[in-house]
Design a protein that fits this description.
- The structure holds 2 protein chains of 2 kinds.
- Chain A has 3 domains: about 5-220, Rossmann fold, CATH 3.40.50; about 225-325, Rossmann fold; about 345-539, Thiamin diphosphate (ThDP)-binding fold, Pyr/PP domains (Rossmann fold).
- Chain A is α/β, with parallel strands linked by helices.
- Chain A has helices at about 10-20, 35-45, 55-65, 80-95, 120-125, 135-155, 165, 190-195, 200-220, 240-250, 265-275, 290-295, 315-325, 345-355, 385-395, 400-405, 410-430, 470-475, 490-505, 520-539; strands at about 5-10, 25-30, 50, 70-75, 100-105, 130, 155-160, 170, 225-230, 235-240, 255-260, 260-265, 280-285, 360, 405-410, 435-440, 480-485, 505-515.
- In chain A, helix 1 (about 10-20) crosses helix 2, helix 3 (about 55-65) runs parallel beside helix 4 (about 80-95) and helix 14 (about 345-355) packs across helix 19 (about 490-505).
- In chain A, helix 4 links the parallel strand 4 (about 70-75) and strand 5.
- Chain B is α/β, with parallel strands linked by helices.
- Chain B has one domain: Pyruvate-ferredoxin oxidoreductase, PFOR, domain III (Pyruvate-ferredoxin Oxidoreductase, domain 3, 3-Layer(aba) Sandwich), CATH 3.40.920.10.
- Chain B contains 5 helices and 5 strands; from the N terminus they run E-H-E-E-E-H-E-H-H-H.
- Chain B has helices at about 20-30, 85, 115-125, 130-140, 145-164, and strands spanning about 5-15, 35-40, 50-60, 75-80, 90-100.
- Chain B has a 5-stranded mixed beta sheet.
- Classes of the chains: A alpha/beta, B alpha/beta.
- The interface between A and B is large, with 38 and 37 residues.
Chain lengths: ~550, ~160
């Protein structure tokens, strides 16, 4: 371990580097803060990375590669696991051949998410091992460890990060040769193992529980957990970023049991630790996952007051928890909230919707900012693609006068992710007075930092591929009334098209197309590069 | 250990180069051989919202959070004057506030280098050599803007010296 190869890396950069060093053959995922930079970095340093239409497809592609003995990395934010969960739960039964490490990048405090769900519970529910790094060095190390565990027991491994782990930079000393290289991809048939009809799934479940029992034993004996001895007065049981907050917040002489593998838990280690301290406090963000598990295991622990369940922890909050301080927390001064860029093409659409008094079922992306003044033109936003179904649901039951004010507003990447099936629903179960879907196509996945998607015609690395045409797709699905409008060059037309679509009792799709301001220049460069490449190929 | 940590908070609005400034500072401390931790939150900052980034450095930060605790910043750099009061609670009682108004923007070779000028002002308080600063600035910016940023950095140093 030489000092000369130390680097200052974010958790995301560290995961990408480790994936490369650990022989990951394919990285898949969908953009989602705070996970997005992992695949971008992986591609940049020479890894093979792909964006999938959504996290479910991403995990399925990775699973296929893992069945062929290739090592895979799947990345997503916490709510992305909701989308991929169908795959995860049964992949735990089928197991994997090549390692599969699944990153769940949680967002306690919702720096940029719709909720702060605690995905540690997924490891328990799905029955997969879970690793929780506390800094970038561990983010790096635990990718290696995850690959080793995944391959040794043939099981997907959850690598659970949080915003602070993903985006904080800490020093990393990489160990490129740590993990033995992967074998050549190949396929060995295993019908009972991979075809989950009930006759096969029943023994598969038993195999899963047996694997978890073995991994639990391993975790007790050799797991990535660490005890720091103290004077015995106060013991802190912790994991993830909470560990470093607690190290700084705790009084001198405090003991620590820092867990790196938090499912299956090393209950024996936890009991031993509990025995040598007078007072044992669990420091964890979000849900009382460790508290509940410790108590279920017969270990007496103090948790935190419910007020600390909301938002992320930090040094000051941990001090308060240790002191049992439940007085109201100081409110930080309100900073300036984000808003749509001046000149953003989305602004035109929201002006029209506001002026027409529409009820807009909205979705997730930059355009969610249409809820803010001066527009206040978005009525709902729940999860990826919900604009479609929620809009239809409103239309199905509202009296006609109100129903005809309802529109669904969805972005281009969001539409590919979770809106296509909503459009199928619209043609299949049409509301009595029709419906209007507005697809805001700005040629990029903008809010997460301008990534490509199947509607841009470029892959993750910006090289050309097939471009999905929304207007053709809408027609193929059975929607006859399809428009494509430029909101800036044709802003009057946009207003007329939306107005008349609302008046008609039809199913309409309006594709509002103009490149994102921030992406426009780069898009031209990519298109020029593609044209140059095509011309060179033709010569 | 807490007394040996240098805590810096950089604050401003999205688009001003808050994260770039904190990257440069972290890189300088890192190149000087310190243990460094840096905290920031990505996501909304491109849309003009408030942005802050914490940089901490010391001989050993293994027992430290990447986030500067409330009221513990030794130095608070603010790139937009309307963010001074928003960010002030981060500053310790004897901390130093270095705000955009320290810099004569008209004297800047390029207004975009305000963030680097403010780093120049900060550099007069820190025990980091000028050459690690220069190499950190260069490592974080494209070559064509190295010269204007070196000038901005020097401008910031001058501005700080004039105040003391």
């Amino acid at each position: 371990m030489t000092e000369s190869n130390r680097e200052l890396l974010s958790g995301n950069e560290a995961v990408a580097l480790a994936a490369l060093h650990a022989g990951v053959a394919l990285g898949t995922g969908y953009p989602g803060t705070p996970s997005t930079e992992i695949l971008g970095n992986f591609s940049r340093i020479g890894g093979r990375a792909q964006w999938a239409p959504n996290e479910k497809v991403a995990m399925e592609v990775a699973l296929g590669a893992s069945f062929a003995a290739a090592r895979t990395l799947v990345t997503m934010k916490h709510v992305g696991i909701n989308v991929a969960a169908d795959v995860l739960f049964t992949a735990a039964y089928t197991g994997v051949t090549g390692a599969m490490v699944v990153v769940s990048a949680d967002d306690p405090g919702m720096a940029s998410s719709q909720n702060e769900q605690d995905n540690r519970r997924y490891a328990v529910a799905a029955g997969v091992p879970m690793l929780e790094p506390s800094d970038s060095q561990e983010a790096y190390d635990f990718v290696h460890l995850g690959v080793e565990i995944s391959e040794k027991w043939g099981i997907p491994v959850l690598l659970r990060l949080t915003t602070r782990i993903c985006h904080s930079k800490t020093v990393v000393v990489p160990t490129p040769n740590r993990t033995p290289p992967a074998g050549e991809p190949h396929y060995d048939r295993d019908l009972p193992g991979r075809v989950m009809v009930p006759a096969n799934a029943r023994p598969a479940h038993r195999r899963l529980r047996a694997k978890l029992a073995e991994i639990a034993k391993w975790n007790e004996a050799e797991g990535p957990n660490r005890v720091i001895d103290g004077n015995g007065k106060l013991g802190i049981l912790t994991s993830s970023i909470s560990y470093v907050h607690a190290r700084e917040a705790a009084p001198a002489g405090a003991s620590f049991l820092k867990l790196g593998m938090t499912h299956p838990l090393p209950l024996g280690k936890m009991r031993t630790f509990a025995d040598v301290v007078q007072r044992l406090v669990v420091i964890e963000e979000g849900d009382p996952v460790l508290v509940d598990a410790a108590r279920a295991g017969g270990i007496a622990v103090e948790g935190k007051d419910e007020m600390y369940r909301f938002g992320e922890l930090n040094v000051d909050r941990v001090k308060r928890i240790l002191a049992g301080d439940t007085s109201p927390e100081p409110k930080p001064p309100k900073g300036k909230p984000p808003q749509l860029c001046p000149g953003c093409p989305h602004r035109k659409t929201f002006e029209v919707l506001r002026d027409l008094g529409c009820y807009a079922a909205g979705d997730i992306g930059c355009y969610t900012l249409g809820v803010l003044p001066p527009f206040e033109a978005l009525d709902t936003c729940v999860c990826m693609g919900a604009s479609m179904g929620v809009g239809l649901g409103l239309r199905h039951v509202l009296p006609e006068e109100q129903a005809r004010k309802v529109v669904s507003v969805i972005g281009d990447s969001t539409f590919v992710h979770g809106g296509i099936t909503g459009l199928v629903e619209m043609a299949y179960n049409p509301p009595p007075a029709g419906h209007v879907v507005i697809i805001l196509d700005n040629g990029t996945t903008a809010m997460t930092g301008l990534q490509e998607h199947p509607g841009t015609g470029r892959k993750l690395d910006h090289t050309p591929t097939h471009r999905l045409s929304f207007e053709n797709l809408a027609k193929a699905i059975g929607i006859e009334d399809v428009h494509v409008v430029d909101p800036v060059a044709e802003s009057e037309l946009l207003r007329r098209v939306i107005e008349s679509a609302l008046k008609a009792r039809k199913l309409s799709v309006i594709v509002v197309r103009r490149p994102c301001l921030l992406a426009a220049k780069k898009i031209k460069q990519y298109e020029a590069a593609a044209a140059g490449g095509a011309a060179a190929a033709a010569r | 250990m807490a007394e040996q940590i240098t805590n810096v908070v950089v604050a401003g609005l999205g688009g001003q180069g808050v994260l770039k400034a904190s990257d440069i500072l972290a890189e300088a401390a890192f190149r000087a051989g310190r243990d460094v931790k840096k905290a920031e939150v990505h996501g909304m900052s491109q849309r003009g919202g408030s942005v802050t980034s914490d940089v901490r450095f010391a001989a050993d930060l293994s027992g430290a959070s990447p986030m500067v605790p409330a009221g513990s910043a030794d130095y608070l750099l603010v790139l937009s004057m309307d963010q001074v009061e928003v960010a002030r609670p981060r500053l310790s009682d004897d901390g130093v506030l270095i705000s955009a108004d320290w810099i004569d923007e008209n004297a800047l070779p390029n207004r975009k280098s305000l963030n680097v000028a403010v780093l120049g002002a900060l550099s007069t308080y820190l025990d980091l050599d000028e050459d690690v600063w220069r190499s950190a600035v260069h490592a974080n910016l494209p070559e064509k803007v190295h010269e204007v940023n070196d000038q901005a950095f020097a401008l910031g140093r001058e501005a700080a010296r004039k105040r003391s």
